[in-house]
Write a structure and sequence with these properties.
Elements lengths: L4 H16 L1 H4 L10 H12 L8 E2 L3 H17 L4 H11 L11 E7 L1 E7 L2 E5 L15 E11 L13 E11 L32 E8 L2 E8 L2 E2 L14 E9 L3 E9 L6 H5 L10 E13 L2 E12 L36 E11 L5 E11 L3 H7 L7 E14 L2 E12 L14 E5 L10 E5 L8 E12 L3 E12 L12 H4 L9 E15 L2 E13 L8 E15 L1
Antiparallel strand pairs: 1-9, 2-5, 3-5, 3-24, 4-24, 5-6, 6-7, 7-8, 8-10, 10-11, 11-12, 12-13, 13-14, 14-15, 15-16, 16-17, 17-20, 18-19, 20-21, 21-22, 22-23, 23-24
Helix pairs in contact: 1-5, 3-4, 3-5
């Protein structure tokens, strides 16, 4: 990239600062989708005419190393911007572990973190809900505990031997006002993360606790962490839930990756949901099994297919742990009456399939799209079984992201459209619907004791949404963005009862009187030091036909300010 003389010094200073963030990446072997190292490498990959290896996170060192290798191959014949070279150098400098090549390394580290955060409502006319989920809110105090044992053969460098193995464990113990945070509409009820009373310091548990191992192209992990499978607003497995309890395994190569996950979901039921099961005999369990095949046939094109099975009410047998089965064939089609009562219509399972496409059509950009479905009647089924009364359930997205190197960072822009069918994620009962739940003990009178989220798109079923963002990002230093979103949200949701029949099958998005949601947001985060981050945000939300009542309206202006310090 060509720079004017007057900006070269500023750009060089910021570039060197970005390269210095390699120290922060060091000693990790687990990276989230939007972590600094991953974002920087993703931008550099687009510039080099390739893609980040996978759209499923968290990532291991193999994911970063293989993407870095493709970028280096490009850089050998063509020039990269200073920003991309700094990102590449920072990632290539991640040691495995902090040890001399050919030696063993051991990591044992105890950290500490603290944050003060406030999110006041500056104006409202009704309550359209908070723009920041409870999962995003910072804990008042956190204590990360990390252990690692690795055999090092060199740094992440395509010219150096790959490490023979790595084992890593992390738990972050949080002190947060989690149990006092929800009111009757499952909306955070306090305006800061400050513990309001010592009486509330009685329920603290980690949202992150796992062990992960890597051996060349193979990796596996077990525990509790945030997962995300898919680009943009992931439709199949998103970061909307606060965390997942899971077991997964992966194979990662230059042109192909495979990933398997077993996710356990809290099976707690409300009385009304228990009544909907018609008194059938069942176990109080809910599990989701997923596997994902992703191909990178060309540097600029990635294709992925995901298949999954939600199984509730029965304990899974050993066959479900086989990552190579076609999960759809494990659906208990002919065994729905588990208690032997002929009239019991309790259905414990449901399938999900999604197809993803990512393309780097030119330098600095990525186009992506996803088609997901958890119910689709083929013409054969309709003709052979008369299944026209079973409603389809599907969703799709199309999006665009771009990052252009500028002033030591990247100028970012993106656009996305998402459509979800009225029955997407909704199945016959809570045990096989594609929703997540956790139990908490709220001290607010009349509060719901169960917190819910969709496994996929945050608006859930029956929605159409357009969104756009523009901003600037220097990973590890400074980032900011402006966003605009408009959505139509129909009346189908978490509490919608599944139905069959011609009327149910004929429903179109959006149903009933849809809410018309518009939001304008500004956010910025600055790290003046590696251990200090300052953040702020402002979101104006307006909802027409609020509560699906024609003519009703609600609006709110919400702010967010935070200061966080951490030592690891």
């Amino acid at each position: 990239m060509t720079k004017r003389p007057g900006t070269r010094a500023v750009a060089l200073a910021l570039t060197l600062a970005l390269a210095a963030t390699g120290a922060a990446y060091a000693q990790q072997n687990r990276f989230d989708y939007d972590e600094d190292a991953v974002r920087a490498l993703r931008y550099a990959a687009w510039e080099a005419g390739t893609l980040f290896g996978s759209a499923a996170s968290p990532y291991g060192l193999a994911d970063l190393g293989l993407t870095a290798a493709r970028i280096q191959a490009f850089a050998a014949g063509q020039g990269l911007s200073d920003e991309a070279r700094a990102a590449l150098d920072a990632v290539l400098g991640i040691p495995r572990p902090e040890a001399e090549a050919g030696s063993d390394g051991f990591l044992a580290r105890l950290g500490a973190g603290a944050a003060l955060e406030a999110y006041p409502r500056l104006y409202d006319s009704g309550d359209p809900g908070t723009p920041w989920s409870w999962a995003e809110r910072l804990p008042l105090l956190s204590i990360p505990i990390e252990l690692g044992a690795r055999r090092a053969e060199g740094a992440i460098d395509p010219g150096a031997p790959a490490p023979t193995g790595a084992l890593y464990a992390r738990i972050i113990v949080d002190l947060r006002e989690d149990h006092n945070a929800l009111d009757g509409t499952v909306t955070p009820a306090n305006v800061s993360n400050w513990i309001e009373s010592a009486d509330y310091i009685d329920y603290t548990f980690p949202h992150e606790a796992f062990i992960a191992g890597e051996y060349g192209a193979l990796s596996a992990s077990f525990g509790r962490d945030r997962l995300r499978w898919g680009p943009g607003s992931a439709l199949t497995l998103s970061e909307e839930p606060d965390y997942y309890d899971y077991l997964d395994a992966a194979l990662t190569t230059r042109r192909f990756s495979y990933r398997y996950a077993w996710i356990s979901i809290d099976p707690s039921l409300r009385p009304s949901e228990l009544d909907a099961l018609d008194g059938g005999a069942f176990e109080s369990v809910k599990n989701l099994f997923l596997h994902r095949l992703e191909f990178l046939p060309f540097d600029r094109v990635a294709v992925a297919i995901v298949e999954g099975l939600m199984l509730g009410g029965v304990e899974p047998d050993l066959a479900y742990a086989n990552p190579f089965l076609i999960l759809h064939n494990r659906f208990p089609w002919n065994t729905t009456a588990y208690d032997g009562i002929g009239g019991n219509d309790f259905v414990p399972a449901a399938t999900v399939v999604s197809l993803e496409l990512r393309v780097n059509p030119w330098r600095y950009a990525e186009l992506y799209g996803t088609l997901a479905m958890n119910q689709l009647q083929s013409s054969y089924e309709i003709e052979r079984y008369g299944a026209a009364a079973i409603p389809n359930a599907y969703a799709w997205q199309a999006g665009f992201e771009a990052a252009y190197p500028l002033f030591g960072g990247w100028l970012r822009a993106g656009f996305e459209y998402v459509y979800t069918n009225p029955w997407m994620y909704i199945r016959e009962n809570r045990f096989n619907s594609f929703t997540w739940r956790r139990r908490l003990t709220s001290n607010i009178g009349g509060a719901d004791q169960l917190a819910d989220a969709y496994l996929g798109y945050r608006y859930g079923p029956d929605a159409m949404a357009w969104s756009g963002t523009i901003g600037w990002d220097a990973p590890g230093r400074l980032r900011g963005k402006a966003s605009l979103e408009y959505a139509l949200k129909g009346e189908q949701g978490l509490d919608t009862a599944y139905a069959t029949g011609q009327a149910a099958a004929a429903l179109k998005t959006p149903t009933g009187t849809p809410e018309r949601i518009a939001a304008i947001g500004l956010e910025a985060y600055w790290k003046p030091r590696p251990w200090l981050e300052l953040g702020c945000g402002l979101v104006l939300t307006s909802v027409g036909d609020y509560g699906h009542v024609a003519g009703a309206a609600a609006a709110a202006l919400d702010a967010r300010v935070s200061i966080a310090v951490s030592y690891r």
